[in-house]
Design a protein that fits this description.
The structure holds two protein chains of two kinds.
Chain A: E1 4-5, E2 7-13, E3 16-21, H1 22-43, H2 52-71, H3 74-77, H4 81-97, E4 103-104, E5 110-113, H5 120-142, H6 144-149, H7 159-197, H8 199-239
Parallel strand pairs in A: 1-5
Antiparallel strand pairs in A: 2-3, 4-5
Helix pairs in contact in A: 1-2, 1-4, 2-4, 2-8, 4-8, 5-7, 5-8, 7-8
Chain B: H1 10-141, H2 148-164
Classes of the chains: A mainly alpha, B mainly alpha.
Subcellular location (chain B): Cell membrane; Endomembrane system
Coiled coil (chain B): 50-121
Membrane topology (chain B): Single-pass membrane protein
Chain lengths: 242, 165
């Protein structure tokens, strides 16, 4: 059972085909909508004495605040609360999406429902977005001179490594998320595929599927937390003087 | 699944970038900002409430201390009053006793004087009667033998005798 996303290449730009991964787009949009819905329902009433969903949303916000405060001064880091919150929540929801079920078309085995974070382009895009933001805010908050000087600290000859570090950060941040979720989905497909092959295998693979789903929930939560945490760590490296 | 089969998927990249950015901006502006505001407000309120509670507690303690001191003072005062009252009553009783004793003394003295006087009077009257009686007897006995002068002398001697008794 090989899985293939649905691709759409409507046009070319400067000779490069602009390809859209429709599966990723749909699932990521749905993840975004879920986050949007929860956040707005939770933040709608704005009660001094929070109830229900507002409690949950406030807990998530507080959690993000904890992540930021662990890395930098709240006066500097307060502006990144939206970034941390959205990263944490969207990645968490995305990771969870592939756990209860996956959908694929019968004929072509084109996947139409999966964790959008198992797409390397999406994961790397988020990582690159975060790293680019750290550079932007590094220049904005500390000035370009301080920002550039940071590449030669603590010793000048570390400059090439500092450059490598920036790319390595981006790559590891994105690939870690992608790799975990992708591996989770691949193994899930294998287990479920084996279970679906016959009635006996279905009985045998029932328990491993459950175990793997539980582990998938664990991995998904952990990766969402790690992504948000590392985003704030990289951010603090750029916006705080050492 | 061939991951990089079609080269770099620029479409996916742009789409996810745009979707994430829009989501982040909307959430940040319309949900998190007011939510953070209300959370901060609540935090401030809780802080204020805690401060106020602390203040009230200190005040209450102060009042309690004050009350305790007042109570102590009142107790001391009551004790003093009680002592004074008992002292006064003792003094009064002593005074009354003294007065009663004096009164009794006085009454006794008066009685003694009365008795003395009565005795004197009785003696006087007896003396007079004895005098007249003895004169009458003597007159009767020695009417003819004695003249006036001798008679007087005899009476006096009798009187002296009586007085000596």
């Amino acid at each position: 059972m090989s899985a293939q996303s649905i691709y759409w290449t409507p046009f070319e730009l400067f000779g490069t085909p602009i390809t859209f991964n429709v599966t990723t787009m749909i699932t990521f949009t749905i993840a975004g909508l879920i986050v949007f819905l929860f956040t707005f329902l939770g933040a709608r009433k704005m009660a001094m004495r929070p109830t229900g969903l507002q409690n949950f949303i406030e807990w998530v916000v507080d959690f993000c605040r904890g992540i930021i405060k662990a890395n930098m001064d709240w006066k500097t880091g307060g502006r990144f609360i939206a970034l941390a919150y959205t990263l944490l929540f969207v990645i968490f929801v995305s990771n969870m999406m592939g756990i209860p079920f996956e959908m694929a078309t019968y004929e072509t085995h084109s996947v139409i429902w999966k964790s959008p974070t198992s797409d390397p382009f999406l994961a790397l895009t988020l990582a690159a977005f975060v790293v680019v933001l750290t550079h932007i805010y590094g220049i904005k908050l500390r000035g370009s001179k301080e920002y550039l000087m940071d590449y030669f600290r603590p010793k000048w000859f570390l400059f090439p490594f500092k450059i490598i570090e920036e790319f390595a950060n981006t790559l590891t941040l994105g690939m870690r998320l992608f790799g975990n979720v992708f591996a989770k989905e691949v193994l899930m497909l294998l287990i479920v595929g084996l279970g679906a092959s016959s009635l006996i295998w279905g009985g045998i693979m029932f328990a491993p599927t459950m175990v793997w789903q539980a582990f998938g929930i664990f991995i998904g939560s952990l990766q969402a937390y790690i992504f948000a945490m590392l985003a704030m760590v990289y951010m603090s490296h750029k916006v705080e003087s050492h | 699944m061939e991951i990089l089969s079609e080269g770099i998927e620029w479409g996916t990249i742009f789409y996810s970038l745009a979707a994430f950015t829009v989501l982040m901006l909307i959430i940040g502006k319309f949900a998190l900002k007011p939510l953070m505001g209300i959370m901060e407000k609540r935090q401030n309120q809780v802080n204020d409430d805690l401060d106020n509670a602390e203040k009230s507690r200190v005040e209450a303690e102060k009042y309690l201390e004050q009350q305790r001191e007042e109570l102590k003072a009142a107790r001391v005062q009551a004790q003093e009053t009680l002592e004074q009252a008992s002292k006064m009553s003792e003094q009064q009783s002593r005074q009354v006793l003294e007065q009663a004793k004096q009164e009794a003394e006085r009454i006794k003295e008066a009685a003694v004087q009365d008795i003395e006087r009565e005795k004197e009077q009785a003696l006087e009257s007896v003396r007079n009667q004895v005098a007249s009686l003895s004169v009458a007897i003597a007159t009767k006995v020695i009417e003819k033998e004695l003249d006036e002068k001798e008679q007087e002398k005899l009476i006096d001697s009798y009187l002296k005798e009586v007085e000596a008794k």
